[in-house]
């Protein structure tokens, strides 16, 4: 089982490495550096204005620490099929889970180190704590996370299902003890708690049964959150192809009046707004484009940037034309091919017009009316040039 | 004459799978297309529905070829595939709406027919669900509903009896009966010979891409020189003859 765990971790690392290349691309890194720089600058400015000890400093630190504590999950890396294939291995599962628990501690520990490191200057200015106290608080935090994972492990064996509230109450008390009395008291409290847990857990688990379904469900929802985060930057296959009902869009979809000639329009519209892949792509580029246009002072540079973004979106939407190719029935409809191309053209045109409109609204904020008018004309010209001249040519040579 | 297939030779590449098929399916008849896996049943169907183009020969539906008048040809034909194909982003109601749109049907009449079929197949409470999440049998029922709201001249049903529960099979056979009475022709490929024997008017026995025999059960019995016996016996005899 240990081996299985190692295998799973390797797989997981490989996958995350693959995605991290997309997430931490140059643009994002530059943006992050600028953001962190700006944050650090304003943080130091705020620190300069603080004098002496402040009554609200410790409560604020306590709240920040509790928020920080909620970061990080117990990653079991269990998969759906495990509920069937690993069932006979249940007695040996504990060693797998313990390895998973230990592994899961690294990420929150690193986050705590960063967070507490960032708090150090504030703590030094506004409270009576010294830097070495920060180290002790770090130890308390990691120990708290450790005990949280123990509780999650117990919960997956149907023991202490409702551990959350008591846990955070105890965590708040221990952290308060560390902040107001002395961090060493906190460390001491955690040593007692940890020893107690390690003594009690084998006894609690003696006759317990592992809750496979719940554990796999937790792991899946953990991975889903992770994928959602990554999906902001790049397409995740586990998410693409997923369809959401999005019933709130129904009034919008109903505006479209169907007819035989517009059969594919009906299909494309629903597939686009209920799917994740192309809608996500469109929204990502829309937001990015709007932000970039916001920061460009020269109207004609902004106009070119806007046109480039229109081209990018339109170009990346082109494969969406093929989305029904694998559906046999879509080939059988007594609907001429021309009307399918026209339907697709209308969809892209509509989407690009909305995009151009949003870009124009952004331009309206910090440009003169004449510049705005010129910008809008350029964007509209780009939309019609792309959808009426360029795309039909790209779609035609199918035959 | 509903469907006329003459000298059909075709397949996926230049090597033909089907060799010179000739058969007709007149109005008001149900024809069973019988053959082992790989005999060419699906390939035949793919040629008729028009996703494969014949290398030689012609396929006419009510006197019209696909290349001649594609829209008329396609409108006269409805197809229930073996594996359900559904749009993941469309609800059951929208699948029906889409079919009405694509085949340019009269909305009121088509919904009447759809309501009838939905109740028959116990799907009427699930109109706003995504059929992509249904079980396989239920998905197949959705495909049946969508195909039979089209008043087609020819219905092609690929393996209708696997995956459906007995009640649904009975209901499907009733629907086929109804359409036949209206004047439609039906072609169904199947391995379930007992049911085929009971409900089909005539049979086409395919083997290695060739038609070995065709006709009604009585005609087939004569051809194979069997006095008694059912479709199974004829079928096994044919296979033994091919093997020799």
From TrEMBL, chain A:
Positions of transmembrane segments: 21-43, 55-78, 99-119, 165-193, 278-296, 302-324, 344-364, 370-391
Sorted UniProt keywords: Membrane, Transmembrane, Transmembrane helix
Database matches in InterPro entries: EcsB_ABC
Pfam families referenced in this protein's UniProt entry, alphabetically: EcsB (PF05975)
Protein's name according to its UniProt entry: ABC transporter permease
From TrEMBL, chain B:
Keyword Transport carried by entry: yes
Pfam family, one: ABC_tran
Superkingdom classification of source: Bacteria
Domain ABC transporter positions: 3-233
Entry-linked SMART domains: AAA (SM00382)
Molecular function via GO: ATP binding
Signal peptide: none
Keyword Amino-acid biosynthesis: no
PROSITE patterns for this protein: ABC_TRANSPORTER_1, ABC_TRANSPORTER_2
Annotated protein name in UniProt: ABC transporter ATP-binding protein
Species of the source: Loigolactobacillus jiayinensis
